[in-house]
């Protein structure tokens, strides 16, 4: 995978107006009860550049394509309601210079995105503006250049900037999802590591399916991935550089290692090691290769996840007799059970904001994805289904992605595995499109940071 | 009169339901004790009279009386065939999280390994691998299928 460099050469064309009263804001804490009507005017392609883009990208109108990326992103967030283009009265080039706000408020738009694309020094240069229609003001303006092949990322970056300006929180659109692609009969699934943009485009396969692979997770600081592979029938945790394709076994354990995750600084891998019927949690420092045993208990200790400050670890243990969630200090001391509700609890994952732990719960034959505070209080179940598990947080901690499986008969008929996402509010549950069946999703950090 | 007929129909449906569910229970109980599989559908044989697998209750790795009997047969066969090494493949059903199931499969296979070792089989001849819920034998989403999938299978390694 080629590293794609993106140059933000002029961060701000105009200084952002300081948040002033009266300008639109989107409240992200209340779900999509009232999504903000927004008009995404197709980006205007500079006349001289039209031919160049047609030759290079085989796209009739790259400006329209970029704005559809933005529109889809905004819609999928559940916080925005992008308006139909047919209703737009003003032409893209004129709107970008100076919108006629009456025209846009007539179609009930509260915010407007305009922009222009150019081909300049073999690069794609985009400039866009966000307007507050009701106040009749420009809210932000930004320009950047990139290689033309990166045009979808341009749409994602625009969405991130708009989202951040309107909600006050960082976006999650210029990100990727790594997951396990699944094919074949349920009794003998062929599984491959796959990676795609957050919106389901640009799918690439990172392994060939010759051996079983499970639970890939991104390093939060770079494009490394850790996962479980059954290479040579020895289930071990591996480290994979997705840019070079180089992979290596993590540590030298005389048995199965599994359930890997990175520490928040990306320098350690935390995982389980199973031996003689007992699974405990270990870390390995990727620089000096020092292995530390973190838990020491005859029960199953697995699914560890660091807090974002690296000081604590949440994990899954059946030391009480059944699977429950525990929190301890990162050296393994002060182990404390935090889940006390009815049912079994698994796969705890610490939110990147630090205040919540997402989990899977099994109760009375149903599976739930939920969140609780880090002391175990305030448990909130977001979604219920026949089978679903393994939530992963968007980098801004607003959205969870997980996988869901359907019931099947003894021939495997009816079976499917799909990725789904849901807002932290419990609203906006969505199927995330994948080319094949999919499971074990992990969300990357923002690529442009 | 009409109401009475409706009532009779309802009564018939309810009775039919009870009858059918009684059949279903009976059928399952033939192949399950508690929720441990006791049937033979999926069982293969290492040699005549030596079943290759043992079954477990939900979330459990405790060997049942039947499992111990099977493992004693395996141990006797392994003592007679001292050149044969085996892999114990531990499995879980689909009603658990993937990572926990990997650990559970490992625990089940090790429960079988420990028992073989107490009957004189050297640990050097036995290796263990867990597949968690990755390799079910029965794809069904029902208690009977799940009971077949909660297993440790002894496979010849050479």
Question: Which features characterize this protein?
Answer:
A: 449 residues, mainly beta, Rossmann fold, Neuraminidase, 7-stranded mixed sheet, 4-stranded antiparallel sheet, B: 158 residues, alpha+beta, 60s Ribosomal Protein L30, Chain: A, 4-stranded mixed sheet, 4 helices, 47% helix, globular
Structure, explained:
The complex is a heterodimer of chains A (449) and B (158). Chain A is built from five helices and 31 strands. In chain A, the strands form seven sheets. In chain A, strands 1, 2, 3, 4, 5, 6 and 7 form a seven-stranded mixed β-sheet that branches. A four-stranded antiparallel β-sheet of chain A has the order 10-9-8-31, with no helix packed on it. In chain A, strands 11-12-13-14 form a four-stranded antiparallel β-sheet, with no helix packed on it. Residues 1-21 of chain A have low confidence and may be disordered. Helix content of chain A is 12%, strand content 42%. Chain A is mainly beta and 449 residues long. Chain B folds into two domains: 1-32; 34-156, OmpA-like domain (60s Ribosomal Protein L30, Chain: A, 2-Layer Sandwich). Helix content of chain B is 47%, strand content 20%. Chain B contains four helices and eight strands, in the order H-E-E-E-E-E-H-E-H-E-H-E. In chain B, strand 1 and strand 2 form a beta hairpin. In chain B, helix 2 (65-80) crosses helix 3. Chain B is globular, with a radius of gyration of 20 Å. The termini of chain B are far apart. The model of chain B is unreliable at 10-27 (pLDDT under 50). The chains are: A mainly beta (449), B alpha+beta (158). At the A-B interface, strand 15, strand 23 and strand 27 of A face helix 3 and strand 7 of B.
